[in-house]
Write a structure and sequence with these properties.
This protein is mainly α. It has a domain of 45 residues.
Length: 67
């Protein structure tokens, strides 16, 4: 017999999860002294924000499929 898939939906939208990730990474970076680890956390926060912008752009009603 096959396993049943977990079909629950996330509580937060993808946009909210990306924003929360970026906020948490920035907060963690603020607690660290200047170092490579802090730079990596700040880069991850910027990446999360960029992903959120791309997701907003892709899901915008102005974006139309080619004809």
């Amino acid at each position: 017999m096959s396993k049943r898939r977990n079909r629950t939906r996330p509580l937060l939208s993808f946009q909210q999860r990306l924003n929360n990730f970026a906020e948490e990474a920035r907060a963690a970076a603020r607690r660290l002294p200047p170092s490579a680890e802090r730079s990596e956390l700040l880069q991850k926060a910027r990446d999360g924000e960029a992903a959120a912008k791309i997701d907003r752009w892709l899901s915008s009603p102005g974006l139309q499929t080619p004809k």
